[in-house]
Amino acid sequence: MMNQGNETHTASLGQKLYKVFIYFALALLAVVIIVPVAWVFMASIKQNSEFYGNPWALPKGVYWQNFVDAWSGAKMGEYMLNSVFVTALALIILLVVALPAAYCLARMKFRGRKFLNVAFMAGLFINVNYIVVPIFLMLRDGDNWFKSLLGRTFLLNNLVVLAIVYAATALPFTIYLLSGYFATLAHDYEEAAYIDGAGYTTTMVKIIFPMAKPSIITIILFNFLSFWNEYIISMTLMNSAKGTRTLPVGLLNLMQAQQSAAQYGTMYAGLVLVMLPTLILYICVQKQLTQGMTVGGLKG
User: Can you identify the CATH homologous superfamily of domain 74-299?
Assistant: First the structure.
């Protein structure tokens, strides 16, 4: 009995030490993430003269002119509107294509279904950054054909085409995740809808999609962050027209310009403009994101 009590005490002590270690690691990770973000926000309201002293000193006041200079003078407002347009259009195109495709692959049996599943699975292993050059060459050749035929180009430096490329590159992951979730839903719901006279489209839109809401929200959030922060594709396909640059590309140009001009406050204000939408979105929908990831893990 004494040995059992000692073993129980030792196990309890081990569990407490493990919890302390986990909490310490999480707290350290939170500090590593929060401190740089807080420092950027603090630096964005400082005047340039304050950067030559202690970098950790609190700002003497709130200098909002940095945001005005970044928004108007550095054209960050124009870049942000471009990013909003591209991200929203890419998400719409992605959902319009991926939702019906994932539903068909998961719920219907037809010839070629296994091949399509394998093809989308293979797409998960292709890093988009490795195929940027072939995409650029195809669009350039298409523009050369349009120029010889119509006298102008359409594909490069076009925000709509950029949104289509974003949506296309996100299709494998999105369809894979959604089809995996759709496959776990019982067929009884569809059979009941068919008995009531509903067609395939009505059943898909009014019954299956609402049931998959947590998974759809998760997909939207992940792809929003990916599209919003994407740099390489945008820099490659928007290589000449300044009016079509997205926010990450415009931010890099701002950082290069402001570092040479020693306008550090404006540079950090531009960083805040990039981070703020994603932070606000995450704060608003963190519960839905956690729920969607948990449901996907349990169902899949």
Answer: MetI-like (1.10.3720.10)
